[in-house]
Amino acid sequence: MAINQLPSGAYRARLMIDGQTYRQVFSLDGRSPEEAFAAAREWETLTRARHIQGTLYGPTTVNQYAAGWLSGYDVGPSATKRFHETNVRLYIQPALGTRPIAKVTPTDVTRLLNTVRQTVSAAKVDSVYRTLSALLRSAEQDDLCSKSPVRSKKHRPRRQKPEMIVLERGQARALLQALDGWKRDTALLQLALGARFGEVAGLTPHDIIGNRIRIVRRVTDGTVAATKNRKRRELELPQAVRTTIDRLIEQACNPEPLPDLGDREWAAEPWRRHWLIQTSTGNPPSLSAYNKTLKETCSAAEIPVISSHGLRHTYVSWMIDEGYSADQIAFWIGDTPATVQTVYAHMLEGSSTPAAVAIDNALGELE
Fold first, then answer.
1. I need a labelling partner for 228 at 20 to 30 A (CA). Which of 100, 105, 317, 339 fits?
2. For 100, which DSSP code?
3. Intra-chain end-to-end CA distance of the chain, in Å
């Protein structure tokens, strides 16, 4: 056991048990040097007690822990598990797999993320960071390491927000005229409802009730689950989509309604041909195929290249232009007012015309 005072005034305690070194730093943080030293002594006592009880974290490797950690996502098909599994297999295991979790250092994390940045792409760094952070934070909670070596301020990559592209009304009409089949139907509903692609893909004929539509689920990567924030919403259908909706309901041939899926993710395969919009195989629309067609069609029509998410942004920009509040728009798109105010702040600030008109109508006669 050794306790050393660092230049910062904090105390670093080191203890070797069965050939493995355990370390912990005790900063002052408002306490006196004597109190910090006493905390280091207490840590030594607790560490030795945990060793005797068999609860002290040992030389479990990253590979060993990752296998059990990933199995925690086995309840139903999970896009989250696939996301983490890929990052663990391709990037984390080759770099850190054989190292004991207790010996992974912040420097190891920095080296791994820099390697990903140089050999793969800067965009991939954020993905690997998220998996590594979740994995090591879980290991910390399981007492396999004293503190996760991932440091958010040091390691979290800075994400550059891409320029937000939206379409003018004429450009949107040109896009719809150039599209056909399920891709046109999907784009029309996105522009008419401001819904996410997965929410449109998850619609069934039973979600249409008179002149209203219920958005209660989403389909993503072959799985069906509740909406992103697990909130259901019911919206009035614009007249512009009524003909399309009627045609889609007729083509669907009255499938059985989907059961309440709860909070779990389920495979979409058992519900083939149950969807309001579906491909020729009866499956829900494919996001990758949809975005590829949008890109090609926009380029051919000489309008700004836009993605599925860009159509959602377009809807919001139109609603802001019409003078609707962030609270109203947030409900319609299934988001929070805070998100609308943050993401679309520049649009809200630049759309003061409705407010000015309202003031003129109320006070104009005073001049």
1. 317
2. B
3. 84
Are 179 and 203 members of one domain?
A: yes
Task: Give per-residue pLDDT as tens, 199-221.
Answer: 999 999 999 999 999 999 999 88
Residues 6+ apart with CB under 8 A from 313: 164, 165, 166, 344
Task: Indicate if 17 and 81 belong to the same structural domain.
Answer: no
State the Rg of the chain over Cα.
27
Task: Identify whether residues 148 and 126 lie together within a single domain.
Answer: yes
Structure tokens at 240: 């512009």
Q: Is 210 left (phi over 0), alpha (psi -120 to 50) or beta?
A: left
Look up the domain containing 84 and give its range: 62-155
pLDDT, tens digit (0-9, with 9 covering 90-100), for 325-361:
889 999 999 988 888 887 776 666 555 455 555 555 6
Phi, psi of 125 (to 5 degrees): -60, -40
List the CATH number of the domain containing 91.
Answer: 1.10.150.130
Strand partners, 224: 219, 266
How many structural domains does the chain have? 3
**Structural domain ending residue among the three candidates 155, 189, 208:** 155
Q: Is the same domain home to 46 and 103?
A: no
Same domain, 260 and 346: yes
The yes-or-no verdict on residue 367 having pLDDT over 50 is no
Residues 93 and 207 in one domain: no
Q: Residue length, the chain?
A: 367
102-142 tens-digit pLDDT:
889 999 999 999 999 999 888 789 999 999 999 999 888 87
Beta strands in 149-278 (DSSP E): 208-209, 212-215, 217-220, 223-226, 233-236, 266-267
Q: In a 3-state reduction of DSSP, which class is residue 130?
A: helix
How many Cβ atoms are within 10 Å of 249's Cβ, its own excluded? Answer: 15
Whole-angstrom distance, CA of residue 323 vs CA of residue 354: 5
Pairing state between β 208-209 and 223-226: unpaired
pTM above 0.70, yes or no: no
Quote the CA–CA distance of 160 and 157 in Å, as a whole number: 9
Paired tokens of 135:
């994995």
Of the residues 110, 132, 155, the one at which a domain ends? 155
Rounded CA-CA distance 281/283 in Å is: 6
